[in-house]
Amino acid sequence: MKKYIFIVFSLLTVTLSNAQEITGGVRGGLNFSFFTEDAKKDNGSLGFEVGYFERLEFENNYILQAEVNYTANSYKNSDTKTVSSYNYLEIPFLVKRKITPEFEIGAGIKYAFGLDGKEKYDNDNDNIEDQDIDVDGGFGYLIEGAYVKDKLMFGLRLNFKGGEVLNGYSRSSANVFVAYTIF
Amino acid sequence: MKKIVSLVGITLLMSCSSTKMSSLATPAYAPKAEINAIRANVEVDMKKKLVGESSASYFLFFRTSGDNKFAEGMSYSGGKGKFDRAKSSAAYKALENSNADIIVHPNYVVETERFLFFKKIHVKVTGYAGYFTKFYQKEYCDDCNDNNVELKVDVKSKKN
Fold first, then answer.
1. CB contact under 8 A, A19 and B55
2. In this predicted model, which residue has the larger pLDDT, A16 or A62?
3. How far, CA to CA in Å, does A68 sit from each of A98, B65, B116?
4. Which among A69, A60, A63, A66 has a CA at the least distance from the CA of A28?
5. For residues A121 and A173, is the Cβ–Cβ distance under 8 A?
6. Does B115 contact A54 at a Cβ distance shorter than 8 Å?
7. What would the mean pLDDT of B135-142 be, rounded to a whole number?
8. Which of A75, B29, B71, B128 is least enclosed, having the fewest CB within 10 Å?
9. Helix (H, G, I), strand (E, B), or coil: what is residue B93?
10. What is the pTM of this model?
11. Chain B residues with CB inside 8 Å of A5's CB?
């Protein structure tokens, strides 16, 4: 926790400069979950995320970005043939820097609130059994690269940690996203 | 372990000592100096209008950008904290390089943009340039009211 607070303060210090404008809009994308532990048995699968973002651009080419995202992830265990799906409400804060007028890279932290989860078990008789599972929230960090053209933004994001699923594994994912600036 | 802790505890309790001594004290009356009000004559240049603008942005509770020069000693109507700071900064900009001593009849226009995570405050101040021409101080009169009219009347001397 202390580590994350320190990172936030460090990032804020970097950005202090005259602000130009505040913009915001909606974003959405696809994610692919993966796990660093037990990777052979737990295979990630495709999920999605939708959300809202705001960004504050500074004169020194730094950008402070905050978001609220609803994220749905899942993975399948090849041994037990169990598909675990889980939903989170994530609040990431990023500090980004414009490398060129259209390309920016950044890093940040997020807090993920665990909403709900389900485990589907496909037994030999082809009967699918559902079971609710607990999903835990937690802090995580992320890195991002994005291409911005007018009101559109395309990018790739790597999420690390930020909540645990049933088996206690750290949740990570790779996202491709598109964002549209409304104001 | 418990033995060691209790031993240390007992030792600490036993080694505590305090000394109290009563004494009488009479508080001395020490009046503070009160300075008579200093008044000033101000010449207002109605042709010279002062204008200053300042912006600040906030991320949650953190101030992420804004001016860092402020005019001290200004009093503002309404708004505290974030707004006062922006007003003070706008006042500084209005006075900066104007050679004026004060802003006479300042009008503040405060615009606030609120978002979910961010907040932007923009303040514009306009007023007239004021220049001090004279400072003076009214002499204190023991027996006078606020309008400097003598209150104490010597009845005996009047009879004679």
1. yes
2. A62
3. 22, 23, 10
4. A69
5. no
6. yes
7. 80
8. B29
9. helix
10. 0.72
11. none
Write out the two tokens for A85.
Answer: 């799906």
Q: Do B116 and A56 touch (CB under 8 A)?
A: no
pLDDT confidence of residue B1 = 55
pLDDT band at B16 (very low <50, low <70, confident <90, very high): very low
Cβ contacts of A66 on chain B, cutoff 8 Å: 59, 116-118
Of A5, A18, A22, A110, which to mutate for an interface test with B (greatest number of B Cβ within 10 Å)? A22
CB atoms B65 and A19 under 8 Å:
yes
Residue B56 to residues A48, B64, B66, B109, Cα–Cα distance (Å): 36, 8, 4, 14
Residue A12 is nearest to which of B62, B66, B118, comparing CB atoms? B62
Which residue is it, tokens 């999903």?
Answer: A135
**Nearest partner of A136 among A154, A112, A106, A104, judged by Cα:** A112
Q: Which residue of B has its CA nearest to A91?
A: B117
DSSP structure string for A33-63: EE-SSSTTTEEE-EEEEEEEEEEEEETTSEE
Query: How high is the pLDDT of residue B142?
Result: 72
Whole-number pLDDT of residue B17: 47
CA distance A44 to A63: 32
pLDDT of B112: 93
Q: Is the per-residue pLDDT at B73 higher than 80?
A: no
Phi, psi values for residue A46, rounded to 5°: -75, 135
Contact A170, A139 (CB under 8 A): no
The reported pLDDT for the residue numbered B45 is 94
Interface probe with B: pick from A26, A64, A95, A181, most Cβ of B within 10 Å: A64
Question: Each residue of A22-44: pLDDT tens digit?
Answer: 999 999 999 988 765 555 666 77
Q: Amino acid letter at B136?
A: Y
Lowest average pLDDT, out of A59-63, A76-80, A114-118, B34-38, goes to A76-80
User: How many C-beta neighbours within 10 Å does residue B77 have?
Assistant: 7
